[in-house]
Specification:
Oligomer: single chain
Helix content: 25-40%
Order of helices and strands: EHEEHHEEEEHHE
Largest sheet: 4 strands, antiparallel
Strand order of the largest sheet: 1-4-2-3
Radius of gyration: 16 Å
Strand content: 25-35%
Amino acid sequence: MCGIFGFAKKSDGQTNQQLETLREVFTNLASDSVVRGTDSTGISIINPASRNTFKSIVASDKVVKHETWKSNILDRIDSNSTIGIGHVRLATHGEITKRNAHPFEIGDVLGAHNGVIYNHDDVSVSKSYEVDSQSIFALFDENSNLQECLDELYGDYA
């Protein structure tokens, strides 16, 4: 199944050296997560003012070696960053495309998923999605009661 990695930190709470260490650790997490899936790699870097998402159908161990890793990902990890979400995909539903790579942004919800939702075609969202994970985040976007959302899902997930 897929792999999820990331960080959460306080905004404006790190020294430059700590940020460099975080960038190095994040790169190592991305590279080592390739064992969980090679179908796509996705990263979202979040700060209080914005979300930046990068998606590729290249395996994570190759993404971190590409010349754009620094400009697309590492340069966005700065003192204002609060969350970094990384995902490597082992496709279970849906084609292997950038569109189907995680993390998904649906409405106000951004998320990555590891597992399989067996009843994703039956989840009560207004649209049918190609990837089972998308139905989770659409459900969360439409219903603020987390327990009701989880009660509607049948499968294995993190």
